[in-house]
Structure formats: C-alpha cells, structure tokens
Amino acid sequence: MSAPIRASSILPARREEIELQTADGLRLVGELARPADRAPVATLICLHPLPTHGGMMDSHVLRKAAWRLPALADLAVLRFNTRGTSSVRGTSEGAFDAAVGERFDVAAAIEYAEFAELPQLWLLGWSFGTDLALKYGCEPDVAGAILLSPPLRFSTDQDLATWAGSGKPLVALVPEFDDYLRPDEARRRFAAVPQAEVIGVPGAKHLWVGDAETVLDEVVRHVNPAVPVPLPTTWDGPMEVGDASAYADRTLAVFADQPVTGPPPGQAG
C-alpha cells in the first residue's frame, strides 16, 4: 500500500558514512547515499549554507535530496560538513574560513566522487554553497552546477567568467522573495554566463521552507531528465522515518533573517 512521502520520510538506499581528506590535512565528515539495487545515473555533490548561520550537510533541502532521490531518481547524493561544521553526523575538523580554505573541502569532495567512480558529477550548492560551487567547482570532471538561493557574495566576476568559458550548465533557482538576490537582479548578474539558466520561483524564500519539492523536481529535471517530474508524492514499499526534530532549530531558526557577510578584506578572490 502506498504511503505519503513526508518531510521525515527516508526511502530505501545504500547509505554509508564517509570521511574526506583535504589537501591541507583536515578530516571532513559526510555521507554517501546510492540507489539500493542499481547503479546511479548521476551524482549530486551537496554544498551547504553558511555554517555560521546554521548551515550543514543536514540542512533540510539537502537532507531531503539524500533521503529521496536515490530511490526516486537513480541519483547518488554526497553530503558533507565543510571545515568546522557540525551536524548529527559529527564535526569536521578545522574552522570556518569565509570561502578561502573551503576550496580544499570542495576539491576533496570532488576527488572522493572521482575515486568512487561515481557518474556524472553535479554540484548542488545552497546559499554559501553556491559561492563555493562558483569559485571552486568548475573542474574537468564536474558536469554542471545547480545553485539554490545564490547570494553572489563571495563569488567574483572572474568566477562567473570561468563558468562562462567552460560552457558547462549552470542553473540558478532564485526565490521570488529572497533576502539577498531576487530573480530580476539574478538574471542581470548571471548574464555574464551565456549558458546560465535563471529560474525564478514564485512565492519562495531563501530557506525554501514549503518549497523543497519544487527544488527537487528542478534538480532531477536537469540532472536526470529521463525521470518524469513532478516526482511522486507517495511510495509503495519500505520506508523509514527520520528524526526531523534533531535538525529543526538549525534548518529554520538559527540562520533565518541573518545577514550574509562578505569575505574579509583581501580575501575576495
């Protein structure tokens, strides 16, 4: 009998705790979720929002991607905590470095995915994670990037130029009522990347509360277009229930309506 897929629903997958080793000697904690009984078609490498504002690998959209998309869309989902970030999974070594040292974190995640022979690597960045994707993610084995609520605070014109020159797909999902960058301004800023697709999402806000399904549909539409969207809202099979209360304060309250600061002087590039 089919059951509704809720915010706390965990669909079947092969899930393993992983550790990433950075080139500057740090150990980062994470998780890799793959389809339970088949090979993945593509891979999402998730880059979370600002840890200083509550962002982590379990931020709700990324958590729902890992809990649902291996089963619903044949995707592998790699999540991890950037340096100094804590979640239920644990705390990554190091300290937040305002999008400077985090370049090694992004590189370590991509390297892990390559070593694991995961297919078709896509970056899925959210807020601060979009800046990390833009600054450090345009690597040869990365197929493209999807940006959720990009503030473009740590990214530079040169970062956009790098993506423009690569020709790789760049998709920005921009909430109508975003706190930092709204659709019209986003279209103007991303015009520097001819292949960029800016999708304004009516009624949505920076945290995507109530709009996670819209986000996941767009992710699947771009990363595995063979899967019909909208994705199913019910599941006929085994399903676990996660403890969403373990994340609620950090996914909503802690970094809601907080200003996103730019990089320290001298670290803008």
Q: What series of H and E elements makes up the topology?
A: EEEEEHEEEHEHEHEHEHEEH
- Mind telling me the C-alpha Rg? 17 Å
Spans of 5+ residues with little confidence (pLDDT < 50)? Answer: 251-262, 264-269
Distance between the termini: 54 Å
Label the structural class.
alpha/beta
How many strands in all?
A: 14
Number of helices: 7
User: What is the global morphology?
Assistant: globular
Q: What would you call the quaternary organization? A: single chain
Summarize the main sheet.
Answer: 8 strands, mixed
Helicity, as a percent range: 25-40%
Spatial strand arrangement across the major sheet: 3-4-6-5-9-10-11-12
Strand content: 15-25%
Mean pLDDT: 92
Describe the overall structure.
This protein is an alpha/beta fold and 269 residues long. It has helices spanning 60-73, 102-115, 128-136, 157-166, 183-190, 212-223, 248-253, and strands spanning 3-4, 9-10, 14-21, 27-34, 42-47, 75-80, 86-87, 90-91, 121-126, 142-148, 170-175, 196-201, 234-235, 240-241. Residues 251-262 and 264-269 have low confidence and may be disordered. The strands form four sheets. An eight-stranded mixed β-sheet has the order 3-4-6-5-9-10-11-12, with helices on both faces. Strands 1-13 form a two-stranded antiparallel ribbon. It has a two-stranded antiparallel sheet with strand order 2-14. The protein is built from seven helices and 14 strands. It starts with a strand and ends in a 16-residue tail after the last helix.
